[in-house]
Predict the structure.
Amino acid sequence: MRRKTMKDATCPIARSLDEIGDWWTLLIVREAFRGAERFGHFEKRLGMAKNILSARLKKMIADGILEMRPDEDGAHHSYHLTAKGESLRLVLVALRQWGEDHLYQDGEQMTVLVDNAEGRPIGRLHLTDRDGRPLGNRDMQGREGQAGEQR
């Protein structure tokens, strides 16, 4: 069964999921943030079948999340996050923190995201209004608007 496309949806969440909602896509982005650049790096770290990895990488390039660059020797190429791909870091941190809060028991082993300068766990993400005032779940709502209005 073919998946319905949401590329023309008015909801930004639906449109985003149409592009990055596949779990392999976000795991590829995670590995790119961890330094993976070559096909073999992604394949080994993720344990993906070559055909699935190849299809995902091609789609991510077409979607502007990754770009291919030739290596210095010219015989090989590597994959690099574009600015669009780099901006997914916030999405991955939010997803990670949700998982930390809801999918682990106290004392259970997990990876921890730390800052490079101090080696301490990073702070929690919080929603704020444009002036920095914290917002709770009941302090916001969706409404019709125009692209670019929120930036």
Q: What stands out?
A: The first strand starts at residue 66 and ends at 70. The mean pLDDT is 92. The beta strands are 66-70, 77-81. Residues 89-102 form the longest helix (14 residues).
